[in-house]
Amino acid sequence: MKVKLDIDDKQYELKDEKLFKKLDYTAHIGQDEVHKSKARWRVLACGRRWGKTICASKEIMKAAMIPNQYLWIVAPTYPLTEKCFREVYKHFTFNMPHWVEKKSEHNMRIKLNNGTIIEGKSADNPDGLLGEGLNGLVIDEAARIKKVVWDEYLRPTLADKEGWGLFISTPKGMNWFHEIFTRGQDKLEKETESWNFHTCDNPCISKKEIEEARKSLPERAFKQEWLGVFIEDVGGVFRNVRECVKGELENPIKGHKYIMGVDLAKHQDFTVIVIFDLVSRHLVYYDRFQHLDWGIQKQRIIKANRAYNRCRIILDSAGVGDPILDDLRSNGLSVHGFNKWVSEKGLLVNDLAFAIEDGIISYPDIPELINELNIYAYQVTSSGHTRYNAPEGYHDDIVMAMCLAYLGMKKGYGLRDVTAVAGA
Questions:
Q1: Predicted confidence band of residue 417 (pLDDT cuts 50, 70, 90)
Q2: C-alpha–C-alpha distance, residues 137 and 121, integer Å
Q3: What is each CA distance from 164 to 188, 224, 349, 377, in whole angstroms?
Q4: How confident is the model over 175-198, as a mean pLDDT?
């Protein structure tokens, strides 16, 4: 970024590195990753004292170098907003006073000579978040802000100018902040990038300080507050997700028995193929893709199936699945359809949940797989029924493919000759 500004008949030219030098700011390794990111949505989940507020304040100042920007700093309360705003205000006042046209620390507002305005806002007064469109915003302690504030008040302010957002927080359960963090962990996600850093990743914090905190705090509190770990809440379906992570994907072995689960793409979803070894019950093959025509999808399914000893396939045959089921069978594949999602989805999900909690199955450390399991949740409706789904706007294709594969595994499909699966 490079900006020229006419002030007092002088030319001011600042690049990022020159700006940081003027502010006497040297980013540590983690902060530098955030500063270099080009993602529209950046999500920073960190332990306390990592330096996320300092990092965010510099991002606001970087953006302020562009003329005629309208930028907000938002936090759950005014005192928390003031932490980040004070950093911005201090540096403009003492390091770059010639850039300032008007300022008010009390009102948390700065107007620069290039037309840019920076304001501090509090999320505890949502009506105060209504206004004209923003070019960008920082949300500090985002995990403590209600989802409705983001969905209905803050997100719309960024729409007309296609503004950017930087979300920084220490985790606080599996809430909307965890959801957007999870999206940023997906390698196929283009607009969102997320990072998780421990307090010890800040070179200015002593190891002694961290060890004292480890000894004095309950384990869950230490993990959340110092390691930046998202702790599962009561709404989560799958427990002990990380404990089942082991090994790698494995090449097929002649004579081994396998089972394949396939969840087919619907609309904007992904097609997912998973294969488990029926003896070790380890996930040995994984493929995930979208926006491919059926001919290409079919060839990927056939290729994987033949490689893994023509194993049995349990396939989602609901909706678009029935004609595809027949097509695969005509190619000589042993395919069994499952279409009882309305009546039996809960049973399949619970079976997979128990398998993970008891360590019956295992899988490699595949970020999008782990994240789908972590964010998958249940909700009890007003009528008393339990509904299982990924949060709105997220995918559960991997979970569904694993459910299908585990159905086949549990019933012994692939270890003995069968002619049908429930719903076939």
A1: very low
A2: 10
A3: 19, 27, 36, 28
A4: 92
pLDDT tens across 230-249, in order? 876 545 688 889 999 999 99
pLDDT of residue 178: 93
- The residues with which 386 forms a beta bridge, in sequence order, are 380
User: Of 198, 225, 252, which marks where a domain is finished?
Assistant: 225
Specify if 230 maps to a domain. Answer: no
Write out the residue range of the structural domain in which residue 123 sits.
3-225
Residue 399 burial by CB count (10 A; 0-12/13-18/19+): exposed, middle or buried?
A: buried
Calculate the CA 313 to chain-centre distance. Answer: 30
Q: With CA atoms as reference, report the closest residue to 373 among 391, 396, 351.
A: 396
Give me the phi and psi of 364, to 5 degrees please: -70, 170
Give residue 81's pLDDT band: very low, low, confident or very high (50, 70, 90): very high
- Of the candidates 395, 396, 240, which has an alpha carbon nearest to the alpha carbon of residue 232? 240
Note the pLDDT tens digit of each residue in 89-112. 999 999 899 999 999 999 999 999
Return the closest-CA partner of residue 137 out of 115, 156, 152, 124. Answer: 156
**Domain final position from 191, 225, 259:** 225
Q: Give CA separation, 217 vs 226, 231, 240, 273, in Å.
A: 10, 15, 22, 42
Question: Hey, is 275 helix, strand or coil?
Answer: strand
Distance (Å, whole) CA 321 – CA 413: 20
Q: How far apart are CA 104 and CA 256, in angstroms?
A: 71
- Return mean pLDDT, the chain: 85
Separation CA 83–CA 325 (nearest Å): 58
Evaluate whether residue 109 is within a structural domain: yes
d(CA 166, CA 157): 14
Asked if residue 403 lies in contact with residue 373, where contact means CB atoms within 8 angstroms, the answer is no
- Shared domain check, 253 and 193: no
Q: Are 334 and 275 within one domain?
A: yes
Domain count, the chain: 2
Is residue 310 located within the same domain as residue 208? no
